[in-house]
Amino acid sequence: MADGERVFSKTELYNQPFPWTIISGQVLELGEFIPRHPGGALIRRAIGEDATDLFLSHHAPSSRAAEVLQRYRIGRLDGREAVDIPELWKRRPLQKIIWERLRSAGVDLRATVPVAEGLAFLMLGIFLLWAWLCYVRGWWRLDIALAWFWWRHLDAGLHASMHGDFRYSCWSQKVLRRVYGLLSHRAVEYYCGARELKGMGMSKHWWHHVFPNDPGRDPDWSTMTGVAWVRRHRSAQWHPCHLWQCWYWLPIATLVEPVLELLQVACSGLEAVAAVLEPPLAGDLLPRLLHAAGLWLEICINPGFQLASFLVQPFWKALRTLLLARAVSRLVLYPFSEVQHYMPEHIDLQDKGEEWVVGQLRRTANLRFLSWPVWLLDFLMFHGDSHQIEHHLWPAMSFVQYHRASRVVKTTCADLGLPYHSVGYWDGYRKILGQISEHAAPGTPGGGRAGLRKRYLSDTAASPDSNRLAEEPDLTIRPEFPRRTRRRTTGSSSSASDAG
């Protein structure tokens, strides 16, 4: 630490007029750096946050990024040890080894040819053809058979565009992000943050990346806690009806929850129109108008809602097709969207002093496919859930590179004795059924999300200060998440559906 370096408290930082971030205790002023950032808008996610883990997962140890950022260092955070990036890599030897092996294998985060972009534009064209055949021509069998695929593809496309998969050119990145954002409009806030923030700060999805499968801090766990039709974890409140959940979980998952979600989305659409006609608060009309237009476009075209078919086809035929398509989608996508995100069997095994990369490996899993046609279908859905391990280790990696990266990570984990979880498709169903059966009885009360967070804080307080400073961002700057916050739409276990 330089003599006379300014020490900032968090209160002081939040009152500063310039954008800032914290990396390993160092306070950086980002105002001049934001327009020069090679990664584009991603740097805006770090504003006002501790971005240590994000920085190390986006930049290799050999990267010059740390040297560049030193020019923007203006001080250190009060109560935190300011550690230079080279020294921080020495404290994370396992993550450094995995990065170095990835580089040695010649696997880059970005593909050298625009395969992802070409595939995305091709798939969007095929989707429009499918939508015309199903919604306008009334091919209901094709609708039921493939609605799940297109539903997942559109959500995965928005997810990929947010992470920068399509950054071969700025034009393709911008166009694909807008198109997928319109077709999956309800998920934009989850992935990109509230539109009022204009891309600044951590969205719910980025918090999921920082704390995957952590019941107290991962917002994706909102569907596993609180009041739920089907109880699959002790953190969810138990009710007498859960004694019968082994019998009723299937109709709840395939019929009741989809119908409730359709009603919820219809109410949201009407509220968006009402906000345009009679706004509850003063403000610009254009953002409300764009939000209403985007929401109703998704309701019309997205395979999960299909309003366009109701405008052309007989009402009862369109309704029957939609409900059957939703039921099939839930059944097919359950293992995709649930198993690798919710791994409660590994939660209590956490060592509070473990390295960041070990926590990521322990709390994520890949889906294992044994036949190439199934693998191809998953590839056309941009590997949205099947390569969670590689995606969490390197969030900016293009899905085109996942297959090669997975070989590197699997070999490295075997050599170093690190966890590497992979779950077969039908194994996923067995896990879900096991969770439903195990938590049908009252058992030990879990205390909800607040109790889990309290337990985490007490465990952390008992751990050595050096480990906490080196590996854990300060808890006081983390937001709390409401129970029903995630608005993803594919294969979730609650009416506020989520997929991964």
Automatic annotation (TrEMBL):
Occurrences of domain Cytochrome b5 heme-binding (ranges): 20-78
Q: Does the keyword Transmembrane helix apply?
A: yes
Q: Its Gene Ontology biological processes?
A: long-chain fatty acid biosynthetic process; unsaturated fatty acid biosynthetic process
For this record, the Gene Ontology CC terms, alphabetical, are: membrane
Biased composition range(s): Basic and acidic residues: 468-483
Q: Where is the composition biased (Low complexity)?
A: 490-500
Give the UniProt keywords, A-Z: Heme, Iron, Membrane, Metal-binding, Transmembrane, Transmembrane helix
One molecular function GO term is: oxidoreductase activity, acting on paired donors, with oxidation of a pair of donors resulting in the reduction of molecular oxygen to two molecules of water
Annotated spans, Disordered: 440-500
Which Pfam family is one of those matched by this entry? Cyt-b5
Sequence similarity: Belongs to the cytochrome b5 family.
Q: What is this protein called?
A: D4 protein
User: What organism is recorded for this protein?
Assistant: Symbiodinium natans
